[in-house]
Design goal:
The complex is a heterotrimer of chains A (about 425), B (about 170) and C (about 425). With about 425 residues, chain A is of the alpha/beta class. Helices cover about 30% and strands about 15% of the residues of chain A. Chain B contains 8 helices and 7 strands, in the order βαααβαβαβαβββαα. In chain B, β3, α5 and β4 form a beta-alpha-beta unit. With about 425 residues, chain C is α/β, with parallel strands linked by helices. Helices cover about 30% and strands about 20% of the residues of chain C. Chain C contains 15 helices and 18 strands. In chain C, α2 packs across α3 and α2 packs across α5. The longest helix of chain C has 17 residues. Chains A and C meet through α3, α11, α12 and β16 of A and α3, α13 and α14 of C.
């Protein structure tokens, strides 16, 4: 009889072929998918240096040109060209070019991420794949290159933390606010090296998009991976994304599995939250920073630029204009999201309000635009507010939900979205 | 032969939650050259810190060093700056992986961090699993063999190349 | 006197001017973009340092950047913003559109004006019957900003008369590119060009736009179209109300006349290294392209977007091509979103970018690798302008750009049956 196991134990056992893995054990795991983004060119150059031209399994290679899209310099243009040539030459079918959008979102939308799978990516927010019940974790480009060649990487089995979120949120507060509050409470290293398993009635009722926001931001507490148990919502998403359900392995934690910690949170009394400079765990309720002057508002990133995020922003912005002197940049996370927003009229609402719509991708979150001069301030729906991440080391980044971002763009200062939502009612 | 596993010298001390955007700002990620990256390591903290970094051998930090992005250059730039080891109360996991995989000694040893002064001396023997500060020695859990092999080969890619040269994998 | 002479006479307070004369004339409008504005402001602050008496004459548009990628670029924009605010200058920030389109659409350009700017394509405003000339940044800083004046040499005028009927599939941009090849680059050095004839007269405003646009490639000081009912109707619909400055020439005053039959023209492509290296599209058809773009001073108009939609609706671009669409103004983007073009072209695989001048000089987008090629509606194709100096830039009509995006190679649009 095997001992009860967490999701992380099961996922690593599946990927390594080993059994009875306890937290702390280091094993070789064989990922189902190796994602590399704009950093792919480094993997290719490393492969050349190694003198290797056969890959372990080219069908597990996924490349998405998302961080700098399209190129602004000869160097980047050459890097992109290198990746295209490589993909063509090696037969990388999961290649997505500069027009596709943010890697995580693109892969999930295209049905390439499935429950139970073990996925590595050259991006720390690869924890997001937990939204579909997969084990996603970030690595450096050397490890992706090594996986291309050997098909494996070393993994330490993490401890697991169960995070139960209950209660209905009040209008004007969203999954992002829950996560900001949690990051503020637990701290930037609150989940270091842990597998974060989200549960509770609130989590279970979330859409896959909102679960993405959860699992994405778990990284900001140091989590190795994140997880929401796959359910009907997950399966519906997989079908819509055209995922192959043939050999699906839904891995659920055993009921009496051992957790290093248990965290509970009740969202019913939660106010909109803001992460203030320069760390993500520096979190305050919106009323404590309301009135802070803004030069720029960015609605983008893998945390909060999905279709429902744009809809929320549009609801707040409808019939309003962005304040004079404020630049509102909206960067849809993917081409698919752009298409939906365009055909549903969401785009028109945003344009009419004065938003600048950019091409899908990481955009300003990855430094591909939206840079600030000394003394400027941005409110962003992204997941990081580190010093200098958006231009000047003397600029400030605040983080919030799309609703708070939209309300603040209208007023030109950090604003509680409930003031505008109530007025609209 | 213990000396081959011993690295250290002068120490520069940082606080908790030092993130990757501070260690190496995203704008410099178009490079993978250690020397070039080293010029911009810790740039947000100003030129004085940068100069001290380049004069140091060991980076000492508090909790959650290297939190943030998966960028491998956060480790590469320290190597370029001449850093031989990073000793922290704790690491962000991706930074830890990237350190090992680029051949940078990274050790979690809270007691040693508490014991050392900024500008003082520290040595790490990663084989023995000890950190020396002055006359005191602080133990840490030694690396498992697999990781030690990667480190000794100078990182993951040289390690794989060596395995290939030796006619295959383990 | 012809239109240019009349405008210069009025603005210099003389009853008459003659070609070759040098006059000091009052400037009605100075237009600057984010890059030239920065240089001008810098020279002005450091070397002139006077108040600007009529700041309402000056317009600045951020069009090379829509979202600055670096702190340095962000600082340039912040400095421009502060400078414009300090002097009371009208500023259109990132995402507003291309400098020239924004200046026109917001009513800053009226017939009969003298318009100056650092951008070499400033003569495009001759489409409204202005005298529009590109000057250096130092002229702006030294004389235009503090005194509202500049010196001009009265140019000799050549009238280019276009007559005849174009073949099916030939667009006004093909005619304009063909003219550059036919007349020759630099051949009209220092002259004023009047674009005239029944073909030009019959064109709607935004198609006329493409002719003064090529003045610079022909070497001319300026180009213009004599204002008529089309101009008047267009200007009347602009913000700022009816035009009161409509100058007309007294009669046939051109020093020389060149006549062309547009019936000769086939769809054209300007090949690297210059705009004058023009060939019929068949001669280069089949050359692979990895990039296509609607945008720039001449492109990204609603006309271009609709033409591309007609080619691409219900189809999908070639998998090896990225097709960028850069609306020339917010108004164009809003209209394209409202009438379904944004959805249709997105579904066809195109990527929409913020209203701006797009890949022009690859400031915010559009760098190419050494072996890559782009076909676009842009106004320049000099090597090295967009990333690698070994990359190739082809210029063509929106129809040909869309057809090439579909085929993955330079390709004429299929004629509609």
């Amino acid at each position: 009889m095997t001992a009860p196991r967490t999701f992380a134990q099961k996922a690593i056992e599946r990927a390594s072929g080993e059994t009875g893995l306890e937290p702390g054990r280091i094993v070789d795991a064989y990922p189902d998918l190796y994602m590399s983004h704009t950093a792919s060119w480094r993997c290719i150059r490393t492969l050349e240096k190694m003198g290797v031209d056969t890959l372990y399994d080219v069908d597990r290679v996924a490349m998405v040109m998302d961080h700098i899209s399209p190129a602004m310099s000869t160097k980047t243009a050459a890097d992109h060209a290198l990746c295209r040539d490589f993909a063509r030459r090696m037969g990388v079918s999961k290649f997505f070019d500069v027009n596709a959008g943010i890697a995580h979102i693109v892969l999930m939308e295209n049905g390439l991420v499935r429950p139970g799978e073990f996925i590595i990516g050259t991006d720390s927010h690869s924890t997001i794949y937990g939204a579909l019940g997969a084990f996603g974790t970030g690595v450096g480009f050397s490890e992706i290159t090594a996986a291309w060649v050997t098909g494996k990487l070393w993994v330490k089995v993490p401890e697991s933390v169960r995070i139960a979120i209950d209660g209905d949120l009040s209008p004007g507060t969203y999954a992002k606010d829950v996560m900001l509050k949690l990051i503020g409470d637990l701290g930037a290293d609150g989940l270091t090296y842990c597998s974060a398993e989200f549960g509770g009635a609130y989590t279970e009722a979330l859409s896959v998009s909102e679960r993405m926001t959860f699992c994405n931001l778990a990284m900001e507490m140091g989590a190795k991976n994140a997880f929401v148990a796959p359910d009907e919502t997950t399966l519906r998403y997989l079908d819509e994304a055209g995922a192959d359900r043939g050999d699906l392995t839904v891995l659920l934690p055993d009921e009496d599995a051992a957790y290093a910690r248990s965290v509970r949170m009740d969202g019913s009394s939660l106010a909109p939250q803001i992460a203030v400079p320069h760390t993500v765990d520096n979190v305050l309720p919106v009323d404590e920073v309301a009135g802070t002057h803004l030069d720029q508002v960015f609605i983008g990133s893998c945390a909060n630029a999905k279709y429902d995020d744009l809809v929320i922003a549009a609801e707040v912005l409808a019939g309003h204009r962005v304040a004079d002197g404020v630049r509102l940049i909206v960067t849809p996370a993917s081409a698919q999201i752009m298409a939906r927003a365009s055909s549903a009229g969401v785009l028109t609402t945003l344009i009419d309000a004065g938003a600048m719509i950019t091409n899908p991708g990481c955009g300003a979150c990855a430094g591909n635009g939206g840079a600030m001069a000394d003394g400027e301030a941005t409110l962003s729906t992204a997941n990081r507010n580190f010093q200098g991440r958006m231009g000047s080391y003397e600029s400030s980044i605040y983080l919030s939900s799309p609703a708070t971002a939209a309300a603040s763009a209208i007023r030109g200062v950090i604003t509680d979205p409930r003031e505008l939502l109530e007025a609209a009612r | 032969m213990a000396s081959t596993h011993r690295a250290g010298g002068q120490v520069i001390v940082f606080g908790d939650n030092v993130n990757t955007d501070v260690i190496i700002p995203g704008r410099y990620l178009i490079s993978i050259d250690p020397a070039e990256l080293a010029l911009h390591a810790f740039e947000p903290l100003g030129p004085e810190t940068q100069e001290r970094l380049r004069a140091s051998d060991v980076v000492v930090a508090g909790r959650n060093f290297g939190c943030g992005s998966a960028r491998e250059q956060a480790a590469t730039c320290l190597i370029g700056a001449g850093i031989k080891a990073v000793v922290a109360a704790s690491f962000s996991r991706v930074f830890f992986r990237n350190a090992i995989n680029t051949g940078l000694v990274a050790v979690e040893c809270r007691d040693a961090v508490s014991a050392v002064q900024d500008g003082g001396q520290m040595f790490v023997d990663y084989d023995a699993g000890s950190v020396e500060v002055g006359d005191s020695t602080f133990p840490f859990a030694p690396y498992p063999k697999g990781l030690r092999d990667i480190l000794e080969d100078g990182g993951l890619i040289p390690h794989l190349m060596r395995q290939n040269a030796n006619g295959g994998t383990r | 006197m012809n239109l240019v002479e009349k405008i210069l006479a009025r603005a210099s307070g003389r009853p008459k001017v003659d070609p070759g004369e040098i006059v000091i004339a009052k400037v009605d409008r100075l237009i600057m973009h984010d890059l030239s504005g920065y240089l001008t402001a810098d020279v002005f602050d450091r070397q002139v340092g006077r108040p600007i008496p009529d700041p309402e004459r000056v317009v600045m548009v951020f069009d090379h950047h829509f979202s600055p990628p670096t702190e340095r670029q962000a600082t340039v924009l912040a400095s421009n913003r502060a400078w414009a605010r300090r002097h009371g200058i009208t500023l259109y920030d990132c995402g507003s559109g291309n400098l020239h389109h924004v200046a026109v659409r917001h009513g800053h350009i009226r017939p009969g004006m003298i318009v100056v700017g650092s951008d070499s394509h400033t003569p495009v405003h001759g489409a409204l019957g202005t005298l529009a000339v590109a000057l250096g940044n130092d002229s702006h800083a030294g004389t235009v900003l503090p005194y509202g004046k500049a010196w001009f040499r009265v140019p000799e005028t050549t009238r280019i008369e276009l007559d005849g009927t174009t073949r099916p599939g030939v667009t006004p941009r093909d005619v304009a590119l063909w003219l550059v090849g036919r007349i020759g680059e630099g051949e009209m050095n220092y002259r004023a060009l009047e674009f005239a004839g029944p073909y030009v007269r019959a064109l709607p405003f935004w198609e006329r736009w493409l002719f003064p646009l090529v003045s610079v490639d022909l070497g001319a000081k300026c180009g213009y179209i004599e204002p008529d009912e089309v101009t008047e109707a267009f200007v009347r619909a602009l913000p700022g109300g009816p035009a009161d400055l409509l100058e007309r020439s007294d009669g046939d005053e051109a020093a020389s006349v060149l006549r062309f039959d547009v019936g000769e023209v086939r769809p054209q492509v300007a090949c690297p290294p210059t705009v004058g290296n023009v060939v019929p599209i068949e001669e280069v058809a089949g050359r692979p392209v990895q990039w296509a773009e609607l945008g720039g001073h001449g492109g990204g108009r609603l006309e271009d977007i609709r033409a591309a939609t007609a080619v691409l609706a219900g189809r999908h671009i070639h998998p090896d091509v990225r097709f960028n669409i850069v609306p020339s103004s917010r108004a164009v983007f809003a209209q394209a979103a409202g009438d379904g073009c944004v959805s249709a072209l997105h579904e066809a695989g195109a990527t929409w970018f913020p209203p701006s001048t797009g890949s022009n000089q690859a400031v915010n987008m559009g760098a190419l690798a050494a072996d890559e090629s782009m076909i676009s509606t842009h106004a320049r194709n000099f090597p090295g302008r967009n990333g690698s100096s070994e990359a190739r830039m082809y210029l063509a009509s929106a129809e040909s750009v869309a057809a090439s995006a579909l085929a993955g190679q330079i390709s004429p649009a299929q004629e509609k049956s």
